[in-house]
Write a structure and sequence with these properties.
three-stranded mixed sheet
Length: 240
């Protein structure tokens, strides 16, 4: 039921997603800040740790660049085979920095080894970008057709469902992302300890940082699913 344009169900679903998102982001910032103040025993910066991991795995051709924008904008670009690290990660010899850098190096290793979930995620990117951009427009267009032409259950209804399909692709992408990110973190922890970049005590700090980061992807998947469920419920109700 709507109350003068206010939809309680929408704000319930999106409110849950927003609260979970704020908690996850606060946890990441808190853990990163805490372990940014803990120096590693070897004193390697994030960039140096990532370079050692990449080279030891034969990925000499993967470049490391400083990311623009800062603020944990770290990522691996599979198209150009470049690992981009923020200054907070690339230049600092901290437990948090080497953890994040090793995680991104883990993505480069996934790419080199043809890790299936990463390949699936990359294949989904064009469709997800197209579908996500069109989804709200299709839903609005469908509702407009119903309102102006009294076409309830007709053309407008099916156009709106195409928009829901776009949100479905976004939800699928979010869930495919989970194993990709979790595997990259597991690789990072294993290799950091195996290559003696961190000791056991420092590894515990790396684990806390990467676990907190992993929850942001879990929350993103939950938010995408809630958005999809909201529109399914709303459109199913309009069919009655």
């Amino acid at each position: 039921m709507y109350y003068y344009g206010f939809d309680p169900l929408f704000w319930c679903f999106m409110g849950i997603a927003a609260v979970l998102g704020m908690i996850a982001q606060a946890a990441v910032k808190g853990k990163f800040s805490k372990y940014s103040r803990v120096r590693t025993m070897r004193g390697l910066t994030g960039a140096q740790a990532a370079r050692e991991i990449l080279d030891t795995n034969g990925l000499y051709d993967v470049a490391i660049e400083e990311a623009r924008g800062g603020g944990l904008s770290d990522h691996y670009d599979p198209r150009s085979r470049v690992l981009r690290l923020s200054s907070e990660v690339g230049r600092q010899p901290s437990v948090a920095a080497v953890g994040v850098a090793a995680h991104e190096a883990g993505h480069a290793i996934q790419h080199a080894k043809g890790y299936a979930p990463l390949q699936l995620r990359s294949a989904l990117v064009p469709a997800v970008q197209f579908g996500s951009n069109l989804a709200p427009l299709l839903i609005m267009a469908g509702f407009a057709l119903e309102f102006f032409f009294q076409a309830s259950g007709g053309l407008g209804y099916y156009i709106a469902w195409l928009g829901v399909a776009g949100y479905g692709l976004a939800a699928l992408f979010a869930f495919v992302t989970l194993p990709v990110e979790l595997d990259a973190s597991n690789r990072a922890k294993q290799l950091l300890y195996q290559y003696n970049i961190v000791d056991k005590q420092e590894l515990a700090g790396v684990t806390q940082v990467l676990n907190a980061a992993a929850w942001t992807y879990v929350v993103a998947a939950i938010a995408a699913l809630l958005q999809l469920l909201y529109w399914i419920i709303r459109l199913s109700g309009r069919r009655d």
